[in-house]
Amino acid sequence: MYRPINHGYIEAVIGPMYSGKSEELIRRLKRAKIAKQNVVVFKPKIDDRYSKEDVVSHSGESIDAIPINKANEIYDYIDNKVQVVGIDEVQFFDEEVVSVAVDLANKGIRVIAAGLDMDFKGEPFGPTPKLLAIAEFVDKIQAVCSVCGQPATRSQRLINGEPARYNDPIIQVGAVESYEARCRKCHVVYK
Ligand SMILES: Nc1ncnc2c1ncn2[C@@H]1O[C@H](COP(=O)(O)OP(=O)(O)O)[C@@H](O)[C@H]1O
Ligand SMILES: Cc1cn([C@H]2C[C@H](O)[C@@H](COP(=O)(O)O)O2)c(=O)[nH]c1=O
Ligand SMILES: [Zn+2]
């Protein structure tokens, strides 16, 4: 993939839970660090599953991050030395994360954002769809369906082992105790 040097742009890594978004984000950010680039990583404070301060993948890969509540707090950590900004769990941020990403890219920063494209209902999640529309590069990746083994594009929320209901709250932080990766055919939401 061609990526211009010294120009700002936005990369989005999206997909269901367990598809490897955080692993891919961490991989890109670690390579940028190897290239001696100045990297800053952000995560929403609400995501305290594996760590309050690090981005951690389901497989245990990790990188230091700054936990923030709102997208515009990113500016508190940006100076003219910053070259790469990573944002994990972008779906949890307010819509302003899109204009912040655009602004940083316009300033010459490489912005890499990872997050869920769809919620547990299979519907577009938070600011992610807008981010996809304005990103230069989008990688939509799949997990493995926990039922049939086919590529999984959706996140199945389970409550006491049963599929969640359509009117359940959108935000519920969790991992294997409450979510599975599923393909379109095996994904179930009770209406
Ligand atoms: N159903 C699954 N499909 C693929 N990987 C899975 C699955 N369940 C657990 N994993 C693990 O999750 C890892 C990906 O974790 P992570 O990068 O945190 O994903 P994401 O950020 O997309 O939720 C995989 O490398 C694998 O070890
Ligand atoms: C589908 C869905 C997920 N969530 C939460 C569950 C996890 O805390 C994160 C996703 O983490 P991952 O790094 O992609 O595995 O999002 C939610 O709040 N609502 C949902 O509908
Ligand atoms: Zn399936």
TrEMBL record:
Q: What is its main location?
A: cytoplasm
Query: EC number(s)?
Result: 2.7.1.21
The family database entries (InterPro entries) matched by this protein are listed as:
P-loop_NTPase, Thymidine_kinase, Thymidine_kinase_CS
| Keyword S-adenosyl-L-methionine attached | no
Q: Where is the active site?
A: E89 (proton acceptor)
* Residues noted as binding ATP in the record, renumbered to the chain: G15, P16, M17, Y18, S19, G20, K21, S22, D88, E89, V90, Q91
Localization terms from the record: Cytoplasm
Question: What SUPFAM superfamilies does this protein's entry cite?
Answer: Glucocorticoid receptor-like (DNA-binding domain) (SSF57716), P-loop containing nucleoside triphosphate hydrolases (SSF52540)
Q: Which reaction does it catalyse?
A: thymidine + ATP = dTMP + ADP + H(+)
Q: Name one Pfam family in it.
A: TK
- Which keywords does the record carry? ATP-binding, Cytoplasm, DNA synthesis, Kinase, Metal-binding, Nucleotide-binding, Transferase, Zinc
A single GO molecular-function term is: thymidine kinase activity
Q: What class of enzyme is it?
A: transferase
Kindly list the positions annotated as binding Zn(2+).
C145, C148, C183, C186
Q: Do you know which HAMAP family this protein is assigned to?
A: Thymidine_kinase
Q: How does it assemble?
A: Homotetramer.
| Family, similarity comment | Belongs to the thymidine kinase family.
Query: What is the name listed in the Swiss-Prot or TrEMBL entry for this protein?
Result: Thymidine kinase
